[in-house]
Amino acid sequence: MSASPPPSPASRIRVGSAPDSWGVWFADDPAQVPWRRFLDEVADAGYAWIELGPYGYLPTDPARLRAETERRGLTVSAGTVFTALHRGPAVWDATWEHVGRVAELTRAMGARHLVVIPSFWRDDRTAEVIEDPELTADQWRALTSGMERLAREVRETYGLGIVVHPHADTHIDGEAHVERFLDATDPELVSLCLDTGHYAYCGGDSVKLIETYGERIGYLHLKQVDPGVLADVLAEGTPFGPAVRRGVMCEPPRGVPALEPVLAAAAKLDAELFAIVEQDMYPCPPDRPLPIARRTRRFLRGCGV
């Protein structure tokens, strides 16, 4: 009898989706689909892994959430928190209170990752500019030291690892800021959640980042941008929220970056990775997400994951 072939590297990439792909940005918003419908449809689309999304959108009682996910064959991969650590020690207590709630639920659901998104320099509802897009040297030091402290305390208290998510309209966005952040933080503590869509939106090359900083990539968000809409958005200085409403994020394989080479580069890393589909759509018609999610899952299977 011949031996079974070794598993392909891509088999170590676990694909899931998130409330974001159903147009969910907030814990409670009448423009969003109800959480039961999200769970039903994400399972129907063929995904086995989900993120918690904004804290409070899904049930926060672990027993109730576990019952709801298990009966649909779903498992939680991560929770998400928002931070403003560049503002220094004054925000630590409020940050830790928020992180603690999310981390407790994340741990209770058996997940091991906490996705950390830096605060926006524009208001996420009104798009008003509320901070300078560029940090001072002191703010950079507060950001990097704060992230290291957060990583250390999350690990010690909850047994989770943090993965920092570069994001449009935040202070960690494109190549220069991401590399500066990575070079200034301890690789034993701080890993990256590479969001392919946000990184492309901000001019970054995901494959290059994986090949250069592969040991820092701890998690993936799979997303594409429509290059035509993006060109108009950048030319007009459109904030991220309105850009999403204009359709700047699109379903694969219609946009950039091409996901096949991204997944191929990620598969070469000596790591098991989650690759969570996140197609920013807010707000969106309630019947729109499921057909897109089904098509995207079929596309990703064609990519070997």
UniProtKB/TrEMBL annotation:
Record carries keyword Cytoplasm: no
Catalytic activity, EC: 4.2.1.44
Lyase found in the keyword field: yes
Sequence ranges assigned to domain Xylose isomerase-like TIM barrel in this UniProt record: 39-301
InterPro entries given in the database record: IolE/XylAMocC-like, Xyl_isomerase-like_sf, Xyl_isomerase-like_TIM-brl
Keyword annotations from UniProtKB, A to Z: Lyase
Molecular function per GO: myo-inosose-2 dehydratase activity
Pfam families recorded: AP_endonuc_2 (PF01261)
Class of the enzyme per the UniProt entry, highest EC level: lyase
Protein name, UniProt field: 2-keto-myo-inositol dehydratase
Species for this entry: Streptomyces eurocidicus (Streptoverticillium eurocidicus)
